[in-house]
Write a structure and sequence with these properties.
Blueprint lengths: L29 H16 L4 E3 L9 E4 L9 E10 L5 E8 L2 E11 L2 E6 L5 E4 L4 H13 L10 H14 L1
């Protein structure tokens, strides 16, 4: 049976659904595979490099990431947990977000982390990412915890972005 992947609607800031903390996923089945396929399709359709289930209104701890230039190396992380290995080592990065389209801000995040997650089969995995991947993982985990990258900037800048987005609607 062939299934056509679906592009899901991405919620936009200041939608309150983006503030919901996602629940751990206990069932690793075809429904989860369909969800992650749709998430990848949605992310690729808007040239994104990461998408959390929260951003499409599904409150499961699931995120998809693909920072490869060819967009052919997806990383699917389920029930992710991050351990900061050295809180004193941070890197600034200009972050954007599919839920806050058209806005970029410099965000400082830890540069040395360990990611513990489950794959689609439910097996536990562990990686020590580097560079951009480190930032994207932390950005997507923020989403799963009901936070957005704009929460890392001043209230004034956040309000300005919110007003511009509301005006655009």
């Amino acid at each position: 049976r062939i299934r056509i992947m679906a592009i899901r609607k991405i919620l936009k800031f200041p939608d309150q659904d983006l503030r919901t903390k996602a629940e751990n996923t206990a069932v690793f089945d075809d429904e989860l595979k369909i969800l992650t396929d749709d998430m990848l399709e949605t992310m690729y359709s808007v040239n994104g490099i990461g998408l959390a289930a929260t951003q499409i209104g599904i409150h499961k701890r699931v995120a998809v990431i693909d920072i490869s230039p060819e967009k052919n190396e997806p990383l699917i992380i389920i029930n992710p947990e991050v351990e900061i290995l050295d809180a004193t080592k941070k890197e600034d990065y200009d972050e954007g977000c599919l839920s806050v389209p058209g806005f970029f801000e410099t965000i400082s995040r830890p540069s040395e982390i360990k990611l513990i997650y489950k794959n689609l089969e439910g097996s536990q995995k562990e990686i020590k990412p580097e560079g951009l991947l480190t930032k994207v993982i932390q950005h997507e985990l923020d989403h799963l915890n009901g936070r957005l990258f704009v929460d890392h900037i001043s209230q004034l800048k956040r309000r300005r972005i919110r007003n511009k987005i509301v005006k655009q609607k």
